[in-house]
Protein backbone atom coordinates (compact mmCIF):
# COMPACT_ATOMS: atom_id res chain seq x y z
CA UNK A 1 0.00 0.00 0.00
CA UNK A 2 1.51 3.32 -1.07
CA UNK A 3 0.91 6.44 0.96
CA UNK A 4 -0.88 9.38 -0.61
CA UNK A 5 0.77 12.79 -0.81
CA UNK A 6 -1.41 13.92 2.12
CA UNK A 7 -0.43 10.93 4.24
CA UNK A 8 3.26 11.50 3.54
CA UNK A 9 2.84 15.07 4.72
CA UNK A 10 0.76 14.09 7.75
CA UNK A 11 3.35 11.57 8.94
CA UNK A 12 6.45 13.39 7.67
CA UNK A 13 7.92 14.17 11.12
CA UNK A 14 7.38 10.59 12.23
CA UNK A 15 8.77 9.10 9.02
CA UNK A 16 11.85 11.28 9.59
CA UNK A 17 12.61 9.28 12.76
CA UNK A 18 15.28 6.84 11.60
CA UNK A 19 13.81 3.89 13.53
CA UNK A 20 10.48 4.41 11.74
CA UNK A 21 10.92 5.64 8.17
CA UNK A 22 8.51 4.61 5.43
CA UNK A 23 8.81 0.94 6.41
CA UNK A 24 7.83 1.65 10.03
CA UNK A 25 4.97 3.90 8.95
CA UNK A 26 3.75 1.07 6.74
CA UNK A 27 3.81 -1.30 9.71
CA UNK A 28 1.80 1.19 11.77
CA UNK A 29 -0.80 1.58 9.03
CA UNK A 30 -1.12 -2.20 8.78
CA UNK A 31 -1.22 -2.58 12.57
CA UNK A 32 -4.15 -2.93 14.91
CA UNK A 33 -4.57 -2.11 18.59
CA UNK A 34 -7.51 -2.80 20.91
CA UNK A 35 -7.84 -0.33 23.80
CA UNK A 36 -10.03 -1.70 26.58
CA UNK A 37 -11.41 1.34 28.39
CA UNK A 38 -12.06 4.74 26.81
CA UNK A 39 -11.47 6.63 30.05
CA UNK A 40 -8.39 8.27 31.53
CA UNK A 41 -5.80 5.70 30.47
CA UNK A 42 -7.48 5.20 27.11
CA UNK A 43 -7.54 8.91 26.23
CA UNK A 44 -3.95 9.84 25.40
CA UNK A 45 -3.15 6.35 24.12
CA UNK A 46 -6.06 6.37 21.68
CA UNK A 47 -5.33 9.88 20.46
CA UNK A 48 -1.61 9.24 19.91
CA UNK A 49 -2.26 5.91 18.18
CA UNK A 50 -4.69 7.60 15.80
CA UNK A 51 -2.36 10.54 15.23
CA UNK A 52 0.52 8.13 14.55
CA UNK A 53 -1.53 6.39 11.85
CA UNK A 54 -2.20 2.98 13.42
CA UNK A 55 -4.51 1.53 10.79
CA UNK A 56 -7.19 -0.12 12.89
CA UNK A 57 -8.07 0.91 16.43
CA UNK A 58 -10.63 -0.93 18.55
CA UNK A 59 -12.31 0.88 21.43
CA UNK A 60 -14.16 -1.10 24.11
CA UNK A 61 -16.14 0.59 26.87
CA UNK A 62 -19.67 0.15 28.28
CA UNK A 63 -19.91 3.57 29.94
CA UNK A 64 -21.22 7.00 28.98
CA UNK A 65 -19.43 10.34 29.33
CA UNK A 66 -19.97 11.96 32.74
CA UNK A 67 -19.03 15.43 33.99
CA UNK A 68 -16.71 13.86 36.58
CA UNK A 69 -14.72 12.14 33.79
CA UNK A 70 -13.58 15.28 32.02
CA UNK A 71 -10.74 16.23 34.39
CA UNK A 72 -8.70 13.31 33.08
CA UNK A 73 -10.55 11.67 30.17
CA UNK A 74 -9.38 14.25 27.67
CA UNK A 75 -10.66 12.36 24.64
CA UNK A 76 -14.19 13.43 25.67
CA UNK A 77 -15.75 16.90 25.61
CA UNK A 78 -18.18 18.81 27.81
CA UNK A 79 -20.83 18.88 25.08
CA UNK A 80 -20.73 15.06 24.91
CA UNK A 81 -21.88 14.37 28.47
CA UNK A 82 -24.29 11.44 28.29
CA UNK A 83 -22.88 10.18 24.99
CA UNK A 84 -21.55 6.62 24.69
CA UNK A 85 -17.82 6.76 25.41
CA UNK A 86 -16.87 4.65 22.41
CA UNK A 87 -18.76 7.02 20.11
CA UNK A 88 -17.28 10.13 21.72
CA UNK A 89 -13.76 8.66 21.53
CA UNK A 90 -14.22 7.71 17.86
CA UNK A 91 -15.41 11.25 17.06
CA UNK A 92 -12.18 12.65 18.54
CA UNK A 93 -10.03 10.14 16.68
CA UNK A 94 -11.75 10.83 13.36
CA UNK A 95 -11.19 14.57 13.91
CA UNK A 96 -7.48 13.94 14.58
CA UNK A 97 -6.95 11.50 11.71
CA UNK A 98 -9.72 10.41 9.32
CA UNK A 99 -7.29 7.90 7.75
CA UNK A 100 -7.59 5.45 10.65
CA UNK A 101 -10.39 2.92 11.02
CA UNK A 102 -12.12 2.63 14.38
CA UNK A 103 -14.15 -0.31 15.63
CA UNK A 104 -16.44 0.29 18.56
CA UNK A 105 -17.51 -2.18 21.22
CA UNK A 106 -20.01 -0.39 23.45
CA UNK A 107 -20.33 -3.24 25.90
CA UNK A 108 -18.97 -4.44 29.20
CA UNK A 109 -15.88 -6.60 28.69
CA UNK A 110 -16.57 -9.94 30.38
CA UNK A 111 -15.10 -13.46 30.54
CA UNK A 112 -17.72 -14.39 27.91
CA UNK A 113 -16.78 -11.85 25.23
CA UNK A 114 -13.18 -10.79 25.84
CA UNK A 115 -11.51 -13.61 23.91
CA UNK A 116 -13.50 -12.74 20.78
CA UNK A 117 -12.77 -9.03 21.29
CA UNK A 118 -8.98 -9.39 21.52
CA UNK A 119 -8.60 -12.00 18.74
CA UNK A 120 -8.53 -9.66 15.67
CA UNK A 121 -5.91 -7.28 17.13
CA UNK A 122 -2.10 -7.32 17.16
CA UNK A 123 -1.83 -5.96 20.69
CA UNK A 124 -4.15 -4.97 23.54
CA UNK A 125 -3.86 -1.99 25.88
CA UNK A 126 -5.37 -2.46 29.33
CA UNK A 127 -6.92 0.94 30.04
CA UNK A 128 -9.45 -0.32 32.57
CA UNK A 129 -9.86 1.19 36.02
CA UNK A 130 -10.61 -1.78 38.29
CA UNK A 131 -8.17 -4.40 39.48
CA UNK A 132 -10.60 -7.22 38.65
CA UNK A 133 -10.82 -5.97 35.05
CA UNK A 134 -7.03 -5.92 34.86
CA UNK A 135 -6.95 -9.54 35.98
CA UNK A 136 -9.52 -10.36 33.30
CA UNK A 137 -7.46 -8.67 30.57
CA UNK A 138 -4.33 -10.39 31.90
CA UNK A 139 -5.84 -13.87 32.02
CA UNK A 140 -7.58 -13.55 28.64
CA UNK A 141 -4.40 -12.33 26.92
CA UNK A 142 -2.12 -14.90 28.59
CA UNK A 143 -4.49 -17.77 27.76
CA UNK A 144 -4.85 -16.56 24.17
CA UNK A 145 -1.15 -15.72 23.73
CA UNK A 146 -2.07 -12.13 22.88
CA UNK A 147 0.49 -9.37 23.61
CA UNK A 148 -0.82 -6.70 25.99
CA UNK A 149 0.27 -3.66 27.95
CA UNK A 150 -0.82 -3.49 31.58
CA UNK A 151 -1.16 -0.08 33.24
CA UNK A 152 -2.62 1.40 36.39
CA UNK A 153 -2.75 4.87 37.89
CA UNK A 154 -3.74 6.13 41.32
CA UNK A 155 -3.59 9.70 42.63
CA UNK A 156 -0.32 11.00 41.10
CA UNK A 157 1.43 7.68 40.49
CA UNK A 158 1.23 4.88 38.02
CA UNK A 159 2.81 1.73 36.68
CA UNK A 160 3.12 -0.04 33.36
CA UNK A 161 4.41 -3.38 32.09
CA UNK A 162 4.17 -5.23 28.79
CA UNK A 163 3.57 -8.95 28.36
CA UNK A 164 4.48 -10.97 25.29
CA UNK A 165 3.98 -14.73 24.95
CA UNK A 166 6.92 -16.48 26.62
CA UNK A 167 8.55 -13.23 27.75
CA UNK A 168 8.65 -12.17 31.38
CA UNK A 169 5.98 -12.24 34.06
CA UNK A 170 2.28 -11.59 33.69
CA UNK A 171 0.32 -9.44 36.13
CA UNK A 172 -0.54 -12.43 38.32
CA UNK A 173 3.14 -13.40 38.55
CA UNK A 174 3.71 -10.15 40.44
CA UNK A 175 1.19 -10.95 43.14
CA UNK A 176 2.73 -10.47 46.54
CA UNK A 177 6.19 -9.79 45.15
CA UNK A 178 6.10 -6.50 43.31
CA UNK A 179 6.14 -3.22 45.17
CA UNK A 180 3.82 -1.57 42.69
CA UNK A 181 1.01 -4.06 42.90
CA UNK A 182 -0.23 -2.86 46.28
CA UNK A 183 -0.72 0.57 44.74
CA UNK A 184 -2.91 -0.69 41.94
CA UNK A 185 -6.12 1.27 41.67
CA UNK A 186 -9.07 -0.68 42.93
CA UNK A 187 -11.64 2.03 43.67
CA UNK A 188 -12.54 4.95 41.52
CA UNK A 189 -13.09 6.99 44.70
CA UNK A 190 -9.35 6.98 45.35
CA UNK A 191 -8.76 10.06 43.23
CA UNK A 192 -6.43 10.67 40.35
CA UNK A 193 -4.69 13.56 38.55
CA UNK A 194 -5.32 13.71 34.82
CA UNK A 195 -1.79 14.66 33.79
CA UNK A 196 -0.35 11.68 35.71
CA UNK A 197 -2.77 9.37 33.89
CA UNK A 198 -1.63 10.86 30.60
CA UNK A 199 2.04 10.10 31.39
CA UNK A 200 1.26 6.40 31.72
CA UNK A 201 -1.22 6.45 28.85
CA UNK A 202 1.38 7.99 26.53
CA UNK A 203 3.84 5.28 27.59
CA UNK A 204 1.22 2.68 26.66
CA UNK A 205 0.94 4.23 23.19
CA UNK A 206 4.74 4.09 22.90
CA UNK A 207 4.76 0.40 23.84
CA UNK A 208 2.20 -0.31 21.11
CA UNK A 209 4.12 1.75 18.55
CA UNK A 210 7.46 0.04 19.33
CA UNK A 211 5.73 -3.33 19.26
CA UNK A 212 4.19 -2.63 15.84
CA UNK A 213 7.37 -1.28 14.24
CA UNK A 214 9.47 -4.01 15.88
CA UNK A 215 12.16 -1.65 17.18
CA UNK A 216 13.66 -0.95 20.58
CA UNK A 217 13.08 -2.74 23.87
CA UNK A 218 9.61 -3.25 25.32
CA UNK A 219 8.70 -3.20 29.01
CA UNK A 220 8.64 -6.99 29.18
CA UNK A 221 10.12 -8.33 32.41
CA UNK A 222 10.20 -4.77 33.71
CA UNK A 223 7.57 -3.05 35.84
CA UNK A 224 7.99 0.69 35.43
CA UNK A 225 6.70 2.84 38.27
CA UNK A 226 6.08 6.57 37.98
CA UNK A 227 5.84 8.79 41.05
CA UNK A 228 4.21 12.02 39.95
CA UNK A 229 4.75 13.70 43.31
CA UNK A 230 8.55 13.68 42.91
CA UNK A 231 8.69 13.05 39.16
CA UNK A 232 10.77 9.92 39.48
CA UNK A 233 10.68 6.69 37.49
CA UNK A 234 11.74 3.40 39.08
CA UNK A 235 11.99 0.06 37.38
CA UNK A 236 11.59 -3.35 38.98
CA UNK A 237 13.24 -6.02 36.88
CA UNK A 238 11.36 -9.33 36.98
CA UNK A 239 12.94 -11.27 34.12
CA UNK A 240 11.20 -14.61 34.71
CA UNK A 241 7.60 -15.60 35.05
CA UNK A 242 6.63 -17.16 38.41
CA UNK A 243 6.45 -20.97 38.53
CA UNK A 244 3.62 -20.49 41.06
CA UNK A 245 1.59 -18.16 38.84
CA UNK A 246 -2.07 -19.13 38.72
CA UNK A 247 -2.34 -18.55 34.97
CA UNK A 248 1.15 -18.91 33.45
CA UNK A 249 2.92 -21.00 36.12
CA UNK A 250 3.80 -24.68 36.14
CA UNK A 251 0.53 -25.85 37.70
CA UNK A 252 -2.01 -23.17 36.79
CA UNK A 253 -5.51 -23.38 38.27
CA UNK A 254 -6.80 -20.83 35.75
CA UNK A 255 -6.89 -22.73 32.45
CA UNK A 256 -9.94 -20.95 31.07
CA UNK A 257 -11.88 -17.79 31.91
CA UNK A 258 -14.75 -19.87 33.25
CA UNK A 259 -12.63 -21.65 35.88
CA UNK A 260 -12.88 -18.87 38.48
CA UNK A 261 -15.50 -16.32 37.38
CA UNK A 262 -15.52 -14.83 40.91
CA UNK A 263 -12.02 -13.46 40.21
CA UNK A 264 -13.45 -10.92 37.79
CA UNK A 265 -16.35 -9.60 39.88
CA UNK A 266 -15.66 -5.98 40.74
CA UNK A 267 -15.68 -5.60 44.50
CA UNK A 268 -15.87 -1.84 44.92
CA UNK A 269 -16.68 1.39 43.13
CA UNK A 270 -18.61 -0.30 40.35
ZN1 LIG B 1 1.90 -15.27 35.30
Strand line-up of the largest beta sheet: 3-2-1-4-5-6-7-8
Mean pLDDT: 93
**Beta-strand percentage?**
15-25%
By helix and strand content, what is the structural category?
alpha/beta
Rg (C-alpha, Å)? 18 Å
* Hetero groups: zinc ion
Number of helices: 8
First and last CA, distance:
44 Å
- The shape is globular
Q: Could you give a short account of the major beta sheet?
A: 8 strands, mixed
Compute the number of strand runs. Answer: 8
Helix content range: 25-40%
Q: Which spans of ≥5 residues are poorly predicted at pLDDT below 50?
A: 177-183
Pattern of helices and strands: HHHEHEHEHEHEEHEE
Question: What does this molecule look like?
Answer:
Helix 5 links the parallel strand 2 (56-60) and strand 3 (101-105). Mean pLDDT is 93; it is low at 177-183. The chain is an alpha/beta fold. An eight-stranded mixed β-sheet has the order 3-2-1-4-5-6-7-8, sandwiched between helices. It is built from eight helices and eight strands. Bound molecules: zinc ion (ZN). Zinc ion binds next to loops.
